[in-house]
Structures are given as structure tokens and as C-alpha cells.
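Next comes the chain:
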Amino acid sequence: MTDALTLESQQIAGDLYQLLRALDPARWQDDLGDAFRARLDGIRQRVDALLGRLDGDRFSALKEPLLALAALLRTADPAAHVQEAWNEFRLAAMPVYEELAAGLKALDIHVPSLRPTNYARNVLHASGGVTVMLLILHLLTPTTMLVVAGSASVGAWGLEISRRLSPAVNALCMKVLGRFAHPHETWRVNSSTWYVTAMLGLALTGDIMLAALAVGILAFADPAAAIIGRRFGRTSLINGRSLEGSLAFALVGTVVGLGMLSVYYPDYGLIGALWIALAAAVPAAVAELLSRRIDDNLSVPLSAAAGAWLVLQLL
């Protein structure tokens, strides 16, 4: 019975996740309004039925988010074909979904984290990556890169600890940075913390080229995959990713890598630079696709650097 209840909770979370993804402004379709209403009613009925059977200390982590979801679903009545009304519901439901995901995680059940369209985050991601890449190429040495990355990592992880110890600090961080954050970052380690941790890993290699290449690919390919995947993704793969988004990642990553190497390291020649760029972009795209428990801001740059390093050994 316990296993059945856990499975049903996971299925409800999965259905809500799919509905919220479909309601993303980049995916909205007017002709699906009636289908959205039917899906919402189905989730509402299943949540009410589950709450009537969910008891015991084992499910304490699920009770509160399911009660919050039930309350939201009882009051939600968006007009079938009005995008603004559905978007209001989406914004209200996203934090509730993430609370439910956190409750399931306490039971060792994983459901995907929401990654809604956030153009402000995309712009910050790309502009910040370009800035770091140019600093690496023009200003930092292997030693100073290690010092800067190490200091940033200590500060970021110190802030993460403060967020866990103080709800007030966490609330302040999310208020200041909430425009750029994904909903799950309210209770999980922030992507920027994983980013500076990856920078520390790259700095430990002592290789300026590998670090700049990995940062540049992450800066442009990750936002490109997100935008293309949400807007045009039709072939679902795993972990909420699509074939179209992954192909966009590999293509953009290769172009960015080829451009950087051609400008800053012309001695490799066009063919050599292309092989290095491909060797960095393709593993990075695979890492982005497979990232579930590990944040892709950590896995992508390290995978890109590892792939490029391997080809450099062969060249």
C-alpha cells in the first residue's frame, strides 16, 4: 500500500510537471485550452483522492505540499483559451510543484525540476559567460585564475550554508535574484554556486585555453538549447530535454568553440580547431542531456574541457 501511494504521488507530480511545461509561454497553444482544463480537473480529482488515503509519518514530507496543491486546484478556474489566466495559474503552481518535488526527494523519489522560459536568465547567463571568458583570455594567468575561482567558490558555498541556516537570508537572496532563478533554486543549491565550482575545477587544470573554451560553450550553447528546446522541441528525450534542444546545444557549442579557437589559437588551423570544438561541444551536450541530480552548470564545462583535452592529446 505504501509503495502504491508513493507511486501515485510521483505520477501526480509528473502530470503537473507536464501541464506546467505545456503552459510555458514559449509553448502556449490557444487550441489546447479545453485539454488543459481536462488535465487540471484530472489532477484535482486524483489529489483529493490521494489525500484521503495519505497518512503516517512516512508521508509527512508530502502532506503539506499536497494540501497546498489541493487548495490551489480548488480555487483555480482559468478561462479555457485565455493565456493570461493560465499563466497566472502557472506562476502560482510552480512553487507548489517544487515543494512537492522536495517532499518526494525526501522519499528518494526524483521528479524533474521546472525550467520555465526566463529570458532575463538567458541574457545573464550569456553575458556573464562572455565576461568570464574574456577575463580568462585577456587578464588572468593560471595562478590568478585559481585564486579568483577559489575565492568565488568559498563565497558561494558560504552563502549556500547561510541560506540553509537562515530562512531570512534565503528569502532575501531569492528576492534579490529571483528574477534570474529557477523555482527549484529556492530549496536547492543555486546554479551560480555550481558554476563557480566548475570554474575552480577548470582553474585546477592550469590551462587557460581549456577554461575559456568550456566557459564559452556553456555561455551560449546552454541558453540556445533552452530556447530552441522550449519553442521547437517535439522529440522528447530524458530529464525534460528534447532532441531539438540537444542538437542546438551541440551546433552552437561547436560554432562558439571554433570561433574562439580561430581568433585566439589560430595555430591549430581550421580542421584542428573544428575537431577540438566538436570534442568539447558534443560531450558537453551529452552532459547537459544526462544531468539530473548534478547541475549542468557543473557537468557541462567540465565535460567540455575533458573532451577537448582528450582530442588535444591525440593531436
Q: What stands out?
A: Residues 182 and 287 are 19 Å apart (CA to CA). The chain has a mean pLDDT of 88. The chain has two domains: 2-106, 119-146+202-314. Residues 208-232 form the longest helix (25 residues).
